[in-house]
Amino acid sequence: MATSAVVTGSQAQPRAWPRMLLVLGRVVLGVIFLYASYAKLHFNGAWHLRDYYFFFGMAINSYNLLPFWAVDLLSRYMPWFELALGFFLVIGIGLRWSGLIASALLAVFIAAMTRAYILGLEIVCGCFGNNEKLGPWTLVRDSSMLVLALAVTIGAFLIKKRGAAISS
Amino acid sequence: MKPLLASRIGTFLFAVAFAATSAVSARPQTKTSASPAAKPAPAAMDPAQAKSLGSKSAPITIEVFEDFQCPACRNFYETTLKQLIDDYVVPGKVYLIHRDFPLDIHPYSHQAARLANAAAELGQFETVERALFDSQDQWSGNGKIEEAIASSVPAAQMKKIRDYETAHMNDINAAIESDRTMGVRRNVSQTPSIYVTSHGKTEALPGGGVDYKLLRNYLDYLLRQ
Lengths: 168, 225
Hints:
The structure holds two protein chains of two kinds. Chain A is mainly α. Chain A has helices at residues 12-41, 52-61, 68-91, 95-119, 136-167, and strands spanning 42-43, 46-47.
């Protein structure tokens, strides 16, 4: 990413804005994932590094989607996965793939949330902490996050493609 | 000497008269408060205690903010609380407190809460709570609560509960409102909302009910600490 600044003259101008937008987009998306991880580990006014998975597991299980072993697995590792993903997005390492994973993850979350909403389940979203009720607002918010993730992913792929075309 | 004597006698008589008056005016108060004949005010049980199950000295306290007409509360009661009572409350590991949080969207939840509170004061909370949730489908449509729970609560007992409710309506409403205020203070936004207190720390569990297996894992973890 940083090497793009080396491009000089009139050719550099049209490429600066998309790259800046991409940087902004991935940082915003990365911070969102970092916050999602933080909210699963720090809630009720304290850190829960030893027992966070009980609470997050209860939130996941309320969707009535997964078997118990999968709930247990997700509740233990998802916060750390989100932390790593957020870190990769903010730093910009492997952006195409981290963007793709973030998009896929958000698409799965939204599908589960939409299903729960349609079924009329009165549950917590589990997105940012354990006490946020699932509703239209959480669906709209997560959908806009998916739009951002898709934009970052597509942008990262396009810039990579253009960079390859220029260098060839 | 004579005027002095007269004045001393006057002072003495005044003092005696004053003391006597004071004693007379003080006596009725003392007598009233100590009199066994005076009808004592009915010793109202602490509403929270009346709506609780188990031993107060249990290592874990669970508070559940519930609405008797809420389907999620019924589901939580049927699938989780009943087992929790058998496995943790009865053996003295958990002290379970019911908190009323009747939602305005449910037309009969206040009525059900009043009935449950009256039953609680008469030591019948567990029976009535179970009956209310078990027959929720029957009364939530028409509000005929007493009819719906008649098979679980005998008529004579129901009459006592109804009479108590009528006689103590203000106290019962105040107890429900007190629970609701507590819930609002704790940011309760849905029912059931569950709070677990252990080792001096209170944790809010995810709202909307919790699967028994997951709750059991968490409680066992707390008991191991």
